[in-house]
Amino acid sequence: MSIASRVGVGFSVVVMFALNVAGCSKSSPTAPPAPTRQVAALVVDSSGARIAGTGVYAARLDAQEFTVVGTDTAGVAHFALHDGSWCLSTAPVHDPLLVAASVGQVAQRPAGSVDSVLFRLVARPQSIGKGTITLPGVSAEDGTVVVVVEFPAATVTLVDGSYVLAPLAPGVWTGIAAHSGYQAKQFPIVVPAPGDTITAGLSFSLVPAGVAGPAALKR
Fold first, then answer.
1. Is residue 215 part of a domain?
2. Residues 4, 184: contact at Cβ < 8 Å?
3. At which of 125, 156, 176 does a domain end?
4. Looking at the domain assignment, is residue 27 inside a domain?
5. Do residue 108 and residue 151 come from a single domain?
6. Tell me: the pLDDT tens digits for 161-199?
7. Could you tell me the CATH number of the domain that includes residue 190?
8. pLDDT tens, 148-158?
9. Domain range holding 155?
10. What's the rounded Cα separation, in Å, for the pair 75 and 125?
11. Do both 16 and 115 map to the same domain?
């Protein structure tokens, strides 16, 4: 998938999240919908206790689909999702903030087995990412949008180019940095453990639009 496509996926996660929170939705006439499969997400804390009444985000990584469902009294959120690669993540819960995220494949099961998928999300203290994004040729380096592709986490750089990105769950995630007049950059966000402050690989410069460079390559 190209960087431009992944920017679209990342922004759609954030935008669709905002629409869901606002109670808005959009629809348009399409062909009959593709079949869906039953997906359950069990949310627990580090002791194994189930967490009821929290939101679970489902973001499809190979298409622009996003939905939010709350956990029931048993700590389970129930979805009907199309086949594809999905990231399921929790809304931050408790204080300090606890988060979880997991990527998996939704697909048809072998004949004779239950056609459903289970994600187990263990909510742990959030990590945060800190970095600086510089913009060649300008004095004020604010306004770069930084998003996580897999789940709703986004921020905007300050005038010195610095930013703080949260909440982050343990794992290896995909970041996108985008600013008008510059090539969007895809970069890895490596979160080794819960409750960390991550800085490695989160500071860089964007390449001006029209200038050849690594950021222009498709991933």
1. no
2. yes
3. 125
4. no
5. no
6. 999 999 999 999 999 999 999 999 999 999 999 999 999
7. 2.60.40.1120
8. 999 999 999 99
9. 127-209
10. 18
11. yes
93, 161, 177 from 134: Cα distances, Å: 33, 6, 11
* Helix, strand, or coil (residue 107): coil
Tokens of 119: 């994600």
What gap in Å lies between CA 57 and CA 77, rounded to an integer? 10
- Residue at 117: amino acid letter: V
Whole-number Cα distances in Å, 210 to 8, 84, 207, 213: 20, 34, 8, 9
Cβ(148)–Cβ(133) below 8 Å: no
Q: Is 21 helix (H, G, I), strand (E, B) or coil?
A: helix
Asked if 145 and 185 touch (Cβ cutoff 8 Å), the reply is no
pLDDT of residue 107: 86
Backbone angles phi, psi at 118, to 5 degrees: -120, 125
Instruction: Determine contact, residues 23/16, Cβ cutoff 8 Å.
Output: no
Amino acid at 189: I
**pTM of the full predicted structure?**
0.79
Asked which of 74, 98, 125 is the last residue of a domain, the reply is 125
Q: Are 173 and 10 in contact (CB under 8 A)?
A: no
CA 46/CA 48 separation, integer angstroms: 5
Task: Give CA 24 to chain center in angstroms.
Answer: 20
Tokens of 66: 């996003």
Say if residue 121 is in the same domain as residue 13: yes
Q: Which residues contact 24 (CB under 8 A, 6 or more apart)?
A: none
Task: Give the residue among 43, 34, 95 at the shortest CA–CA distance from 69.
Answer: 43
